[in-house]
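Appendix B. One record, verbatim.
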Amino acid sequence: MNTVTVLFDQSKGTINRNIYGHFSEHIGGVFYDGLWVGEDSTVPNIRGFRKALVESFARINPPVLRWPGGCFAETYDWRDGIGPREKRPRRVNWWYKYDRRVETNQVGTHEFMDFCRMTGARPYVAANMTGVTPLHIRNWIEYCNMPAGLTTLADERAANGSPEPFNVAYWGIGNENWGGGGRMTAEMCAREYLRFMTVCESLPGDMTFVACGPSGHDVNWTRELMRTLAAKNHIPAALSVHYYCGTAGAPQDFTEDEWYQLLRQANRMQNIVDDHRAVMDEFDPDRRTAMFVDEWGCWHRDGTGPSKGYNLFEQQSSMRDAVVAALTLNIFNNRCDVVAMANVAQLCNNLHSLYLAGGDHFVETPNYFVYDLYKTHQGAKQLETVCDCGAWPGDGSPAARPLERVSVSASQAADGSLTVTLANTSMTEPVEVALAGHGGAVAGRATISTLAADDPHACNTFENPAAVRPASVERDFADGDVVLLPPASVTAVRVAG
């Protein structure tokens, strides 16, 4: 019998709510005709934002939302996005050469902060250091965070409709500087970060400045960046990491081999966070630098979403993407002592999106329901688990960890309730798992919710928006009872305290 044992007496600590963060870049259709339809639209909206999306997003308790890039911020001037919308300039943006779409700046700082307040997410502003000066970012921080009446910039914010400060705590200083963010070396990036951060940190407030970390598994970047900063007696508050799963067939047209290929790529996230943390520990043994995996997800070929390629990088999301999301979030939960924030890319009409939208159409993807199933992990005490369900053969990569047949994480909330999340990584075979506890019992009134479909290629479309939805049952659960995991599925077992 396959077994999962929850160790009630072993924990790595609290699962930071920010692990369940999100990312919304001005790229393709993420904002325009995605999140934002405009106040005059016939589409139901709340101050210009798509009402159905606002309400849906709020239901999963989003802790933090990153904006406006990504690479978009390389050429973004925050002053373009304030003041009367009818007077805001239109700009050729970072992505124009790919899709010939002009940035209208209808969504700027005030609109984004309004969206965050509507949904309960805290703002994380990615202010790049490639195309702007340190003073440019410092002024943006002052505009956002200083009390009205104190400075001219704070008064300007108030005059633009927001007397109260936005109190933005998270500021990214540099984005993908190893690539589009200036094609820098790690040493150059570290020196530029110090220059910018030194100017910005002169402002008061409880702020976290995020340095640009590596692409994927590039531990050499992390080592050189941390070494250069340490030589200047600086330990950054946070370091970003970006990792995307590569193309392995299209979302609705993949083989069984491609199913496992993508899941093995997703499973490398565990090596990535562990190995970067080990390098960071060489210079930061007290772990004062937090790790933010602030871009992650599946990156499929273009053109598989409903816009048929009009929205840049838009892709459909199937049950395979949902299993990748579940597997990745389980890794983050089980590495809650290492990962302090994670931001899935992106929120709407793009990579690994929770939503697809256009005109009157709006749909929640299978990825959305993973976040809904997992939301009770937020802020809960992580519990170690022992999973004895076997593993799939390796892919030949010497550093890769085996892909377990069942991915699992567990947590216990302050009220004593238990959440165990399990992903069946088999594309074709169900798994029966006996779920029990050590140092406690998995017992009580349980809600068992399962996200699955008859076909692992299944997805939600404008024509059939409810093709993939979770189903729930309630029952009394005794320690050691069996849970059936359908093929290619995600299950959450919640036991009342």
